[in-house]
Amino acid sequence: AAPDVYAMHQGEGAALKVMQYAQNLREAGFDVLQHSGQQSLKAQMKKADASGARFAVIIGDNEALAGTLALKPLRQADENRAAQQTVALAQAIDIMKIV
Predict the structure, then answer these.
(1) If you average pLDDT over residues 71-97, what whole number do you get?
(2) How far is Cα 31 from Cα 84, in angstroms, rounded to an integer?
(3) Distances from the Cα of 68 to the Cαs of 47, 71, 76, 78, 88, in angstroms?
(4) Across residues 50-71, what is the average pLDDT?
(5) CA–CA separation, 33 vs 82, rounded Å?
(6) Using 50, 70 and 90 to split pLDDT, how confident is the model at 76?
(7) Which residues, at least 6 apart from 16, have a Cβ–Cβ distance to it below 8 Å?
(8) N or C: which end of the chain has fewer CB within 10 A?
(9) In this model, does residue 23 exceed pLDDT 70?
């Protein structure tokens, strides 16, 4: 079965934060596939799409410092597809539960 979320990161500071956020998302009831390794975001997005995940969670060093994440819907119908947005973890959880 496809995961709910594919969590990825870019940058050393973001590597620890993505592990923390992935655990928080699992505790909130989401099935999370976490990317490992140091591939480019483009390569990670290809893997996220291939995984069948509903959402991509992207954390860079800026998001790690700000305590936010970029949330990108991957599977919604084109007419309902929301744009990528930068939000706090709690807001991301609320958004994913609604969709």
Answers:
(1) 82
(2) 20
(3) 22, 9, 23, 25, 4
(4) 95
(5) 21
(6) low
(7) 64
(8) N
(9) yes
Structure tokens at 21: 């956020």
Residue 55 has pLDDT above 90, yes or no: yes
User: Can you name the residues that pair with 8 across neighbouring β-strands?
Assistant: 58
SS (H, E, C) 5-25: EEEEEECHHHHHHHHHHHHHH
Look up residue 33 and give its two tokens.
């596939």
Neighbours of 3 (CB within 10 A): 18
Q: Please indicate, yes or no, whether the overall pTM of this predicted structure exceeds 0.85.
A: yes
- Please check the confidence at residue 78 and state whether its pLDDT lies above 80: no
Tell me how far CA of residue 23 lies from CA of 27, 35, 40, 81, in angstroms. 6, 13, 23, 26
Supply the pLDDT for residue 81: 56
Question: What are the phi and psi torsion angles at 55 (to 5°)?
Answer: -135, 150
Q: Specify the 3-state DSSP secondary structure of 98.
A: helix
